[in-house]
Fold these 3 entries.
Entry 1:
Amino acid sequence: MYDVIIIGAGTAGLSAAIYAVRAGKSALVLEAKAYGGQIINTPEVENYPGIKNISGFEFATGLFEQAKDAGAVIKTQGVLEVKKEADIFTVTTKRNVYESKALIIATGATNRPLGLEREKEMIGKGISYCATCDGAFFKGKDVAVIGGGNTALEDAGFLSNYCRKVYIVHRRDAFRGEPATLERLKAKENVELVLDSVSVELTGEDRVSGLEVKNVKTGELRKLDVDGIFVAIGQIPSNALFKDFVALDAAGYVVAGENCRTDVKGVFAAGDCRTKKIRQLTTAASDGAIAALEACEYIDTL
């Protein structure tokens, strides 16, 4: 029996663990994969208050070690089922069954695919969703980054240090990402913006050899001769497990306000998995702290 079980060991989940144990509660963190969440693949973090520059891996590792040293129990076990009976939550994994008085959902989100024919087949053969993981394989080659948010711009900036040419393909004529990052990219000679364009077809037999894009305003087709395509077009919340447990919105995010409370008493949601306007590292950490303290307050009323 734990006071709090936290599902997910990203920034939100690990922040929640730190705040829960510092408040005198026992906390178990369950993570199906590796700790850190998506930030672990970010080469440079420059917008976290108080830290001028750090890699995502270093940031996540520091957070993991801080939570563990504080007394949180962290296990690499995927959750299969969650139930609530009276005021006790039962969380089942492949290895064990755990119980808690409160539950924090911090499962994050996964990358959204382009939806092109043969896209899945070409993963690892030119298609990638992680520039920092695979960028070095394309040194001296031409690549395309698909997307218009911060992730796409950051990926393009990272790849421009390795690749001969980087195309940024975006379906609109304006970007959602930070203007400062965009201006830095515009100043690079090996970066080209392909605006008002959507991806329509992959080319290549055993590996990607090109990407055909279509201008949504003119209908003009253009082939980009690229060896790699890095997809950064958004995320899908990892909340399928909870669809019959807590309220989700139409997009699949856990319905929870700024107090991180869900429609089920004792259940809280933190980070990218919940309904919110801004999904950044700072807001994930903030959610984790809020969810943990709200959970502690709830436990104290039992």
Entry 2:
Amino acid sequence: MNAQRLGTIVRLELMQRTRSVAWYVLLGVFALVLVLVTALSFLAWGVVPRDAGSGVFSTIVYITLLLVVLVSPTLSGNAINGDREAATLAPVQVTLATTAEILMGKFLTAWITGLAFVAVSIPFLLIATLAGGTSAATMLVALAVLIVEIGVVAAIGVAMSGILARPLFSVATTYLVVAALVIGTLVAFLLVGASVRTEVTNSYRSFEYTSVDPDGIPPCFPGESSSPAYPCDEEAEITCGPWQTSTYEAPRFDTVWWMLAANPFVILADATPTAFDSSGYPVDLFGQIKLGIRAAQEAPETETRWDDCAPTPPTDQPTPEEIIAGSTPSWFVGLALQIALAALLLWWAWRRTDTPARRLPPGTRIA
């Protein structure tokens, strides 16, 4: 692969994109959206002034990823078949540029195009950073994962444009593949997790009393006495009732949490270092989404018990920080699956675009 030919292809592709007025309008609309999101984020996260910057930073990063996921398939889904329909692909294929160089050049162009949205969001990220609460590790990891995710979406779009002959179908298919990663993984997690159930047995016993005050004053339980602030009936006879048992079914999301590993938004949250407040709660969206995913790894208790006659002392519930620390990260597995999928699709696109072609779909334009 020749770097000079590759650079020429990228430069030509970028020149074609930047000459369009619609491209700058799109970036301007994105900037306006970020202005609104940043203002609302400061209002929403301002309830914790010390950590407001961290929450705003994570919100802007997620909005950037969301908009790239929505826009990138349109920009990259017709990179190859669009040139084939415009009769501009064949002249490039008869030059010294190889199929791999053409494919890689269009992929890099689509990636750089997606990174333009990140460039627009940088001033807003700096504002969030100056507000305080965001660590350097959080910023670096979040931006690195964001850049990689943009590259994955760009690779899927370019690959589909080489695999499918019609630009409309390739753009639609790119949206379907991206939707499968973003929405499909979440739907599968919820549906399959709710379908896999386990039976939970709940045993409980409560107090019974034989006399009731006509004014509706409750009885005095052992260790209590009537007072003006908290009146109770000291003459009521309290006895322990019989044990009662009930059963119900609880979903087993702990068996299917891995389905979310390839979700881009989950990868971003799971890979980013989490910051906690003094109570052990996450201070940004990264940590809150990570907490939800990691908490899903815990299996529900199959037996619960409560006795009013001998109440057990309250047990210390694990804090969100302890839950995250005691769970298993999965971002590297999901990211590896995404990269493997993108690489496989690019290889398929290379086989479909390589010349001379043994077989092409009927009606495919050559030159």
Entry 3:
Amino acid sequence: MRFFKYHALGNDYIVLNPSDFPGWEVPTDHQIRAICHRNFGVGSDGILWGPLPCGSAADCRLRIFNPDGSEAEKSGNGLRIFSRFLHDRRLVSGRRFKIETAGGVVEAEIEEEGRLVAVDMGMVSFDSERIPVAGPRRDVLNETIAVGGREFRFCAATIGNPHCVILVPEATPELARTYGPGIETDPRFPRKTNVQFLKVLDRANIRIEIWERGAGYTLASGSSSSACAAVAHRLGLVDRSVIVHMPGGNIDVRIGDGYQIRMTGPVSRVAEGTIDAELFGEFR
């Protein structure tokens, strides 16, 4: 069973091409957990399952799975990685192509032979019904959430997947690790949520720490970068061109009309190989 591994700023994914897995309609929760496990498996922040057939609006379809087996609607880093995989394996023609996800269709553009990939991520919305966030319909801006004995001010957004953005004086890994799990599963977020702790550095730079839904503490995230830049712009704290600084590195985000997001960042190829069936029998 063949696999391909890439990382985008330390956020690593395993790409599984369904054509290499006859008889698999989709990986099971058990198989996903086994492959992603850092000690007993190959190790990754998730599985990219594709390319899959799709409608006429895109060139192919992608399904994205978190290490706990849950499915993600969209992943910015995952999309950049999958775009490079398609380019590397010559599964698409040209430098620009469209990928269908559960969170909508995106357009990718290959730069520097795949070492840099730009993705038009779609439109950020702050609408509570679209994110979703419980309560009356509203734009979710500067609301209060209490977790672990501490109170935070947050904004919520979606770019095809849900985000809770918390502005803080200092963004630290400890904040994400300590409070991220409780915020992710807070009942006001019926589909759970990705969590970001955001510090505005200046009008062109922000720093974030990330707790990712279904994955945990994460070194970088493209959709988180997109949501945080949009929130900071909506609050009037940054301009339309923002560099998002994360522990794994930086992503460039451009905010267009209607909060349309274009995200650009690096992708690195790590390895390719085969997964032995013995893994799934031994993993508990």
